[in-house]
Amino acid sequence: MRVYIAGPYVPKNCSLHDASRQAQRNVENAIDAFHQLKKAGHEPFVPHLSHYIHLRGTEDYGDWWYQYDLGFLEHWAQAIYMLKGWETSKGATLERLEAQERGLVIMYQSGAVER
Q1: Domain count, the chain
Q2: What gap in Å lies between CA 79 and CA 58, rounded to an integer?
Q3: Which of 34, 39, 36 is CA-nearest to residue 5?
Q4: 41: left (phi over 0), alpha (psi -120 to 50) or beta
Q5: Which of 20, 23, 71, 89 has a Cα-to-Cα distance from 11 of 20 to 30 A?
């Protein structure tokens, strides 16, 4: 199954110094989920990898990223995998709503599944 991985990326309530480390941890959590889903026979997509584009970019694309990522839910994904902490993420909350509207399978890192 083609699975879109959703979860927090943008750090909250931390110093600027800690923000880059927290963003990196969030990306690493998504990459870990990729490997777990791949081993289970799925085809995962990790939108968090745009982190590396952010590091090399010279401008802030802002909300453009949300629209870009939602395109994968609209045209590619069969399921969404919600990482722990998704409830605190504006993007992951929007992605879950989009998945619900499209009738995608919703899987949670906790093991719960909605169909």
Answers
A1: 1
A2: 33
A3: 34
A4: left
A5: 71
Alpha helices in the chain (DSSP H): 16-39, 51-56, 64-75, 90-102
CB atoms within 10 A of CB 59: 5
State the DSSP code for 73. H
- Identify the domain containing residue 26 by its residue range: 2-114
CATH number of the structural domain spanning residue 35 = 3.40.50.10400
Show pLDDT as tens, one digit a residue, over the chain (115 residues): 999 999 998 877 778 778 888 889 999 999 999 999 999 999 999 999 887 777 787 777 777 888 888 899 999 999 999 999 999 998 899 999 999 999 999 999 988 788 7
Structure token digits, residue 55: 């590091």
CA-to-CA distance for 61 and 42, rounded, in angstroms?
Answer: 30
